[in-house]
């Protein structure tokens, strides 16, 4: 594996498109006795939208900081856009929207992006077009000369996304990009992400809004306690089945006798069996009737990413 990684790191410019956007091998970070990331191994191809999911404290932010070169790993190796993490030239090809950021309130949106152009750095001859394009993409072109202090939280979120898109990066890290946005704003961000993917850029998406992740990601990895506990495409992760039953006249003692049918979400008269295969439905209904229940409705329920996420975390503890 190390030999292959070395070849990737030394790949000629013409082979850049064939190298993955991200490749890690047993990437590990410890802070004293605390293991923040435990042996992360993954590959994110160019043009892919990759969801990186986990509860607070799972190691997601640590992983992003390692990949950006903001932290040094304790062990393991990683390559970003074909170069080892921390390479200065590679950083110029990466866009990053952190979860928590704040711009000077006295600057205009245009001035904020000009600062980012200088930091990138982009050639000054490209600034005007780059700034105009970014503001247009995130829907702030009509507010370009308004001070950031007059912006709502959602508008500041759009501006942060615009800063991450400057210079047409090959890899974009987005940390909670839709957290402050209304439904229209979330729709717009999903479209921006799809456009990035269609032009060959990779998107590394960290979000707690799992319904958003489900709509836009090609693959996801779920991390907990600093390690990956599941990964794959949406179809691979959501291959389970669930059944929702509307039933009356079952008390808690009767419901307790249904545990043999797997995990259940109890919402009073509606019971959702999250891991029930279709062939066991007749048996379930018969058992409910035998316990005195009156069954009014039985409906299949496709497992959502949130269902699967919670299930994976429960299994991991």
Written account of the structure:
With 317 residues, the protein is an alpha/beta fold. It folds into 2 domains: 2-236, P-loop containing nucleotide triphosphate hydrolases (Rossmann fold, 3-Layer(aba) Sandwich); 239-316, Alpha-Beta Plaits, CATH 3.30.70. Helices cover 35% and strands 27% of the residues. The chain is built from 12 helices and 14 strands. The chain has helices at residues 2-9, 60-67, 88-91, 109-119, 124-137, 153-165, 183-198, 210-216, 234-237, 252-256, 281-290, 305-316, and strands spanning 22-31, 34-44, 49-53, 75-80, 83-84, 94-97, 171-175, 202-206, 219-224, 227-233, 241-248, 264-267, 270-273, 294-302. The strands form 3 sheets. The protein has a 6-stranded mixed β-sheet. A hairpin with a 2-residue loop joins strand 9 and strand 10 (227-233). The longest helix is centred in the middle third of the chain and has 16 residues, at 183-198. The radius of gyration is 23 Å and the shape is elongated. It starts with a helix and ends with a helix.
Give the overall form. Answer: elongated
Report, as a whole number of angstroms, the end-to-end distance.
31 Å
Shape-level CATH architecture of the largest domain? 3-Layer(aba) Sandwich
State which percent range the strand residues make up: 25-35%
Low-pLDDT sequence parts: 1-15
Structural class: alpha/beta
Fourth-tier CATH superfamily name of the largest domain:
P-loop containing nucleotide triphosphate hydrolases
The total domain count is 2
CATH class of the largest domain: Alpha Beta
- Helix share, percent: 25-40%
Q: Count of helical segments?
A: 12
Radius of gyration: 23 Å
Q: Report mean pLDDT, rounded to a whole number.
A: 86
- Largest sheet features: 6 strands, mixed
Main sheet: strand order: 6-7-8-3-9-10
Count of individual beta strands = 14
H-E order: HEEEHEEHEHHHEHEHEEHEHEEHEH
**Remind me, CATH topology of the largest domain?**
Rossmann fold
